[in-house]
User: Fold this.
Amino acid sequence: MTEFQIRLAKISDVEPILAFCQYTWEHQNDYMHLVLEKRINNPNRKVFVVTLDDIPVAMQDIVILSKQEAWLSSLRVDRRYRRRGLSKLLDAHTNKYLSQVNVPILRYCVLSDNELMLKIISRRGDKKIDSYSLCKADTIASPTNQLIQLDLKDFDKICSLIISNNLSYQKTNFYTQLIITCQTITPELLKKSLLGGKVFGLRQNESLRGIAIQSYSELSEQEFYIGYLHGEPEILTVLLCELCKLAYSLGKSVVKGLFPLNDSFGNALSQAAFQRMNQAEIGVYRSSFKPG
Assistant:
């Protein structure tokens, strides 16, 4: 019998991969048809496929975010070949690849109602970092907006706000993208966002009270995605409402973001009319993988 093999996905694999992705979830559609071809063509991503007679029967996606971090996503297995150990094959191959490129940190996320993946996590022995929820709100038509676009001259003030000890208990740990990807906020990432005009601040009495970084959504250019939100507890609601106004002025139809499940964010999101998009919690995990 032909053995399973692992290789990088090719554009010619798109059709057979999408064929088995039709059955990923029983009660909802897979988004893979919206992103697969772009991911295969992205030099920063590696889409690994398990093949049988050179036909893909499983896949897993990894993106290198920095010299220190990578993000794992999109485990898919043809339902005819489930419970054949293909996820273990992909994990081993992914770990070998990360050792080769010397990237020490691997993270991923899983919904709390995904029983199959939770079993795989238990088998891996991976550590849960925190729980989050994906939320959305309508944009707000308004002639005024309190937010200002920040630039490199604001870099030191932003860093001071982010690392302020009395705020650390409620700050968002990660800069995120949609479909969910989480990355540690670094000076390099902050400078890149400032240069791209994606950082907005809220000042009161000449003091920077809160910041937000606009991120990227793979699924729709009509979405305004909040990649990072940070501010004093009493200012978070104002920040969220002003972002909804900003999104409207930019021609966006909806505002989305991934937020920690804690009281500070929970109260602010409720007051700003944000709603959870899924009642299941989104757990972010760090892989137990260690570079060889």
About this structure: The first helix runs from residue 14 to 21. The chain has a mean pLDDT of 91. The longest strand covers residues 127-138.
